[in-house]
UniProtKB/TrEMBL annotation, chain B:
Protein name: DUF403 domain-containing protein
Tree of life domain: Bacteria
Ranges where the DUF403 domain occurs: 1-302
Record-linked InterPro entries: ATP-dep_Glu-Cys_Ligase-2, DUF403
Lineage of the species this protein comes from: Bacteria, Pseudomonadati, Pseudomonadota, Gammaproteobacteria, Pseudomonadales
């Protein structure tokens, strides 16, 4: 089947897109051995700085380097402006949806979203019902995953409203590029992103009604795959990095233990899933959380960013309704498109999916990290059959989407430079206002033809440039 | 010797800041030439450069500043001078220190042959900093706590105090008073101050102490008056006092008195007072005092027979 991919650098006729011209000229003029030397240097520097991640289910080598590609993904400023507006619109609607959902449920009453889709969802937290949050913000930090289809238009693949990660790679990739290839930045105007940590801190402080709240970053600990990022953000913001054991609740207030005595904590940027936050309220086996945290939270004595129960809005079974949410709450037309989605819980959709398994992508509604999904065109017959059985057994746990022709970007691979599929994750911050830094994290699937960009599945990253047209 | 090494490190820090800032999107279309001229301006070598080359040219300015053997203020010449001086006092310093300083010199000759563009500017700055760290570590870990040690430390801190003052002054001249707090937009001043802090390895300290965006008031307070930051003026003067009071004999009275006076001025002032006086005036005054202190130390100990 001949499929046409949208390439970020070249047009269909092989001509270079204008915003990439400076770069390709530079690439052609730079000697190969110099590039190779710089790529080795990048590896060394990432290793030295300890910018690594851990792969679960891998006994040997707990620390891995995330492959970094030196060819940047470049977005013209005019195009970015649309993406930016689209992301802001989407996250605003999602926050309004969460506020509504945990209060009046107007959207359900209006019949826009079926009640069972929301209320029977595992991620719907009864504990949040009726609780008023400052500024009505639930998802303070959101990562919107975008891809481009064959015609180049942007689609939202998913909204990550729980604890989206990867922002440290966005920042470190830029630092690395500026270090290795400063001449590129001297020749072209690339919008800066380094102020992200300061925006993040600003957002976290704005999430509390207090004037000068004490902010901490809560990490599950150094065995977590994104531990580097937790430590990195805490240091860049100048706030404490804490684990559950460093915190305790007394008199319905949250304190952290410090050498000079207890200190009250007002805002937690938590990088821990809902289920682990408080063993008294959620998973009783969790050693990672803080007993009594939920009660403190409900009393309004501490802010969690993101709030508990945001997972219900980024669930893949809710995803098909986001367009409707935007129309319902903002009375605007969605700027970014949703990927058409079949909900396997609907019998008609299910039979369509079963008949076309080899062409579709099927995902678990609550899966993430590229685990537990089927990419039809890339799967073997046996894999498809095995998946079919699981699908029939639990249809409500799956959705299916057409296989998108993810856009490609030239990338260094063993055989030289070749196109590889990429996506884009901008990070949207909601505080006093909703905003983002220009760009985001570009992930690239390094295996030829692969459409899965997750780092746990062998994906790499690229620096992302927003350049003046 | 230690002054020259510290100076080389500071020059590298200066270069690093200006270079990374020159890569930011600029207001004009001069491709950050002004920013690149900054290190030359701070070290007072811009005129010499212009005399020699006539025009501002990015690559040439960088090489002139970093590797030109004819420019006495270049990093190359600093390392050369450090090595020459170390050679002269070879008997009083340890083998570890000597070998370190000598191999630094040998390596920079190699880099100079290779050319800066090929080696990479950031890489180069990093290298100079590392060599300086290494020398300091070797000194701290191997030399007897006698007079040579004290003089080495004195040289380091005189140089460092001077550098912190000059860097702050230059950045402040460029930015002036803060017009208003930036509201999260990537304002130029945010990046300027951040770059300065990073160059002085003080960004993390700043974030921890102030938890907010850098502005001239906070940055000045940190870099001038905070004793816990190892590159602040206050910390340098603390160290100078400690070293001077440990030196035996009466010759050093004038230097000791000057250093103690300097410390007292820093201890009992607050940043608002400094800003009221005008940061630039204050800094110029202190650059002068620190230079005087350096000269007095020289006169008291090294020139009397």
């Amino acid at each position: 089947m001949a499929r046409s991919f949208y390439d970020e650098m070249y047009m269909a006729n092989g001509e270079c897109r204008s915003h990439y011209r400076d770069f390709t000229r530079w690439l052609a003029e730079t000697p190969q051995d110099l590039l190779a030397q710089r790529r080795r240097e990048a590896d060394l520097l990432f290793h030295r700085a300890g910018i690594t991640f851990t792969l679960y289910g891998d006994d040997q080598g707990t620390e891995r380097l995330i492959p970094f590609d030196i060819i940047p993904r470049s977005i013209p400023a005019s195009e970015w402006a649309v993406v930016e507006r689209g992301c802001i619109q989407r996250v605003q609607a999602l926050n309004m949806f969460l506020t509504d959902l945990y209060h009046d449920q107007r959207i359900i009453k209006a019949g826009v979203i079926p009640a069972e889709q929301v209320l029977a969802n595992d991620c719907y937290q009864l504990a949040m019902q009726g609780l008023d949050l400052h500024r009505n913000t639930y998802a303070h930090i959101a990562g919107v995953d975008l891809v481009r289809d064959g015609d180049g238009s942007y689609y939202v693949l998913e909204d990550n409203l729980r604890t989206p990660s990867g922002v440290s790679y966005m920042l470190e990739d830029r630092k690395m590029m500026m270090r290795l290839f400063p001449e590129l930045f001297a020749a072209q105007r690339v919008a800066p992103i380094d102020h992200y940590p300061s925006l993040l801190l600003d957002t976290l402080r704005a999430s509390s009604p207090l004037d000068n709240p004490t902010v901490v970053v809560l990490t599950p600990g150094r065995f977590n795959s994104a531990y580097f990022e937790h430590a990195f953000l805490a240091r860049e913001m100048g706030v404490e990095l804490v684990e559950g054991a460093d915190l305790y609740v007394r008199d319905d207030k949250l304190f952290m233990r410090t050498t000079s005595g207890p200190k009250q904590v007002d805002v937690i940027y938590r990088r821990l899933d809902d289920a682990f936050l408080d063993p008294l309220a959620f998973n009783p086996d969790s050693m990672l959380g803080v007993p009594g945290l939920l009660s403190t939270y409900r009393s309004g004595n501490v802010v969690l960013a993101n709030a508990i129960g945001t997972g219900v809005a980024d669930d893949k079974s809710i995803y098909p309704y986001v367009d409707e949410m935007i129309r319902f709450y903002l009375t605007e037309e969605p700027i970014l498109k949703n990927v058409p989605t079949w909900q396997c819980r609907k019998p008609a959709d299910l039979s369509h999916v079963l008949a076309n398994l080899s062409e579709l992508v099927v995902k678990e509604t609550q899966g993430s990290g590229g685990y537990g999904m089927l990419v039809g065109p890339a799967a073997s017959k046996a894999e498809i059959e095995a998946f079919r059985a699981r699908l029939i057994a639990k249809p409500h746990a799956y959705i299916a989407q057409p296989t998108l022709c993810l856009s490609t970007c030239p990338t260094f691979v063993e055989q030289g430079i070749a196109p590889r599929h990429i996506d884009l994750r901008p990070f949207v911050l909601s505080g006093r206002e909703t905003r983002l830094v220009p760009g985001g994290l570009t992930r690239v699937a390094l295996r030829e033809g692969s459409l899965v960009v997750n780092s746990s599945q062998g994906g790499g990253t690229k620096d992302t440039w927003v350049v003046e047209d | 010797m230690s002054r020259y090494l510290e100076r080389a490190e500071n020059l590298a820090r200066m270069l690093d800041v200006s270079y990374s800032l020159s890569l930011m999107p600029q207001d004009g279309s001069k491709h950050g030439l002004d920013e690149l001229a900054m290190p030359l301006l701070i070290t007072g070598t811009l005129d010499e450069y212009l005399e020699k080359y006539g025009q501002m040219h990015a690559e040439r300015m960088l090489t002139f500043f970093a590797l030109d053997p004819q420019n006495p203020a270049s990093i190359y010449c600093c390392l050369q001078a450090a090595r020459t001086n170390a050679h002269a006092v070879r008997g009083r310093i340890t083998a570890d220190m000597w070998e370190n300083i000598n191999s630094t010199w040998l390596e920079i000759r190699g880099i100079s042959e290779q050319g800066l563009g090929r080696y990479g500017i950031s890489h180069f700055c990093e290298w100079v900093k590392q060599r300086s760290h290494l020398f300091r570590g070797a000194t701290f870990g191997t030399i007897m706590r006698g007079e040579p040690y004290r003089f080495i430390r004195l040289g380091t801190f005189i140089e460092r105090a001077d550098n912190t003052l000059r860097l702050l002054d230059a950045r402040y001249e460029l930015l002036g008073e803060d017009i208003d707090e930036i509201d999260g937009r990537p304002a130029r001043s945010y990046y300027q101050w951040t770059a300065l802090l990073r160059a002085l390895s003080s960004f993390e300290a700043f974030a921890e102490i102030y938890r907010g965006s850098p502005n001239s008031r906070r940055v000045s307070e940190l870099l001038l008056l905070r004793p816990e930051l190892p590159r602040s003026l206050r910390a340098c003067v603390d160290e100078l006092n400690l070293m001077l009071s440990g030196l035996p004999g009466d010759n050093g009275r004038p230097a000791q008195r000057l250093a103690a006076e300097l410390l007292a001025r820093l201890q009992y002032t607050v940043i608002d007072e400094v800003l009221e006086e005008g940061l630039h005036t204050w800094l110029t005054d202190f650059i002068q005092v620190v230079r005087e202190l350096g000269q007095t130390i020289q006169a008291s100990y090294l020139e009397v027979a």
